[in-house]
Amino acid sequence: MGLDSYNGNSMVAMAGKNCVAIATDTRLSTELMTVDGNFQRVFKVNDKTLMGISGLGTDVQTFNALMKFKMNLYKLQEGRDMKSSVFSKLVSTSLYEKRWGPYFVSPLVAGLDKEGDQYKPVICTYDSIGYREHSGNFEVAGTGAQLLYGCCEAFYKPDMGPEELFEVISNCLLSALDRDSLSGWGAYVYVLTPDELIVRALKTRQD
Fold first, then answer.
1. Vertex 105: Cα angle to 163 and 17 (nearest 5)
2. Structure pTM?
3. What is the CATH number of domain 3-202?
4. CA 71 – CA 90 distance, rounded (Å)
5. Which residue windows are coiled coil (predicted)?
6. Domain map of the chain by residue range?
7. Confidence class of residue 1 from pLDDT cuts 50, 70 and 90?
């Protein structure tokens, strides 16, 4: 077992019409032993961007603190919030500059970029040295990633509204959690729209 799967986690991000969502479980473990049942892995970057970080628990907190520092510096210098697409590239370069001693994390970025009257979803995932994967539909990360792919490919459809997106991403995550022994113990779904961030808790199996 590698360090990136040592603490366990399953995470998925999905795009809808003028909305995006990230769903993650809350379990923190040392391999098969549960340490915490409510570990935070999804963080609000700004009003239009969310970042979820899968991987080693200590590096999750370290990398989030680094990105928070870089975002505050940008806002101080530029006097505005960073766009989601720009932030997704900043995550990539931040991981790549530590490539010789990488963070054992696999971040997911979900956000909305304004284009005229519409909002374009930004969905990206990365490996530990910053390779950026962005299909635009859905991305997965964590020890349950392979299990999430099948569910997402079956349930995903384009241009879903916030409520339908919540239902789809919840069912995808819950299906994967039932099959992954390193994830579970509850879940949170974050749905981001141009006007608000909706956070909902899911009940899952406690074993």
1. 20
2. 0.91
3. 3.60.20.10
4. 9
5. none
6. 3-202
7. low
* Both structure tokens of 58: 């200590």
pLDDT of residue 99: 93
> What would the mean pLDDT of 115-135 be, rounded to a whole number?
90
What are the pLDDT digits (tens) for 3-50? 877 888 899 999 999 999 999 999 888 888 888 888 999 999 999 999
CA distance 203 to 205: 7
Mean pLDDT of 90-117: 93
